[in-house]
Amino acid sequence: MSRSLTIERLLAATGEALPIPPGMKGVHVGVPFGPTALSEIEQLNATKVYVMSNKSSKPMVEDFLKTLEEKGILAAPINCDVSMGGAEDGLLKACNEAAAVNADCVITIGGGAVQDAGKLVRLWLSAATQADDGAKKATVKGIQAAQSRDPMPPLPPQICCPNSFAMAELTHVAGLVTNDNVKSGSTHPSLMPTVVIFDTTLSRGLPDWVRFGTALRGVEHAIGAVCHPKATEDIRSRALRGLALVNKGLKGMVEDPDSEEAQVNCYLGGWMAIRALNTGCYPSIAHFIQNQYSARFHVHQGSCSGILSARILHYHREESSLHQKSIAQVLGTEKGGGAEQSLPSAPKLVSDLVATLPGVAKDHNDANVNEEMLRDFAEYMYNQSGERMNKLCPKPFSNAGDVFEMLALPIGNF
User: Fold this and answer.
1) For 146-160, b where at least 16 C-beta lie within 10 A, e where not — what string?
2) Greatest CA separation found in the chain?
């Protein structure tokens, strides 16, 4: 099997628009993860493989783990301790386990939190091998300090097997949530995973909030790239193509959650969108706010997109009106929109799409966030990050009140 881009024949035309991310060796879409991962392990000459997984994915990979064990290359029992958002304690446990067995390859099976955690485990492995004290324990500060080394030593390879559509595996950014409920993490080109294998069988049995929530993130990434102040026309064009595929995939999954075609559409569209966003536009204003909302209120990022995407689009609708028309043209196609003036607004179309998605929160009360909590959050965001938000948003915020009004806008006002 070629260590490059492999996509089913029917998707070959789309594949031409999907370059492998810089620093990555191979991407495989629509292939069985087990034999593909084994082939990659062999080509990487890995002998101490450390496997991380969501708890829900563990039953699906037991045969794969048995094969690794029979080959004598499974370095430790599978780790299933990384929770939603990449909470600090589970991440540090994984770092220490991998370092204790001198892992030379990390395999991550599951959602975005596991994929990001795998990047940070690799970063810690590269630091732990250089430490004077071999018993040194991982800390968040230690992991973040490791990203500042110059030159950066080679990191152990990472094989990502996503079970959903968060797209963390296609970036060199790795998020975590500290014990203080603050979104943090690391970023460095060396954190880009080595290989990605997307096998739709890994998504079987996913709860709706994961399946549809992570796919909705593809919509968020796309509209964030399209409206970003630093976006070029090429970035916007790629993001819009991705948006069209994710929109088609979401509608297909609503009809049949296990549809392979719909899932692959969501994955390929999400791929286009995240690569567009990460080409000089990361993060978008919505991505930034939603990450912090997720960490503060313990809300899955897919539901954060369901609650906030349309509201944030509505806030800067005048300043980004031309780009929002492009978004409306893509999302409005399947609603029978014809002439430009007959299309609903982009925020309305996003809100209407969210309303069809099972398991995804639509409003703050769905996430148990009340008005007082929202006011406190708006104050926190403006006081801590107002300057940064104003660089990301087409319309600046004058004060915390602007942030609150945007967040609290009633759904029916789009």
Assistant:
1) bbeeeeeeebbbbbb
2) 68
**Cα–Cα distance measured from residue 197 to residue 23, given in angstroms and rounded to the nearest whole number:** 16
Q: Is 306 helix (H, G, I), strand (E, B) or coil?
A: helix
Helix residue ranges per DSSP H, 129-207: 140-146
DSSP, res 257: T
Integer angstrom CA distances of residue 214 from 7, 165, 273, 369, 401: 21, 5, 13, 21, 30
Sign of the Cα pseudo-torsion (80, 84, 88, 91, in order): positive
Q: First and final CA of the chain: distance in angstroms?
A: 49
* Residue with the two structure tokens 């991407």: 27
The bridge status of strand 173-177 relative to strand 195-198 is: unpaired
Structure token pair of residue 182: 């603050």
pLDDT tens-place string over residues 200-237: 999 988 899 999 999 999 999 999 999 999 999 999 99
| pTM across the whole model | 0.88
In degrees rounded to 5, what are phi and psi of residue 236?
-65, -40
Contacts of 96 (CB under 8 A, 6+ apart): 137, 138
**Strand, helix or coil for residue 326:** helix
Identity of residue 56:
S
User: How many angstroms separate the CA atoms of 80 and 59, rounded?
Assistant: 11
Q: How many CB atoms lie within 10 A of CB 62?
A: 10
The secondary structure of the chain in percent helix, strand, coil, rounded to multiples of 5, reads: 55, 10, 35
pLDDT at res. 7: 63
Tell me the two tokens of residue 298: 């313990």
| Mean of per-residue pLDDT scores for the chain | 92
The predicted structure's pLDDT at residue 3: 60
Among all chains, which residue has been given the structure tokens 């950014």? 173
Distance CA 318, CA 55 (A): 44
Q: H or E segment at 176?
A: strand 173-177
- Across the beta sheet with 158-162, the strand order is 5-6, 26-29, 195-198, 158-162, 105-110, 49-53
Q: Which tokens sit at 396?
A: 């600046």
Q: Tokens 């999907």: give the residue.
A: 18
- Report residue 342's pLDDT band, with 50, 70 and 90 as the boundaries: confident
**Which candidate, 168, 160, 176, 174, places its Cα nearest to that of 274?**
168
Cα 174–chain centre separation: 9
What is the DSSP secondary-structure string of 210-224? HHHHHHHHHHHHHHH
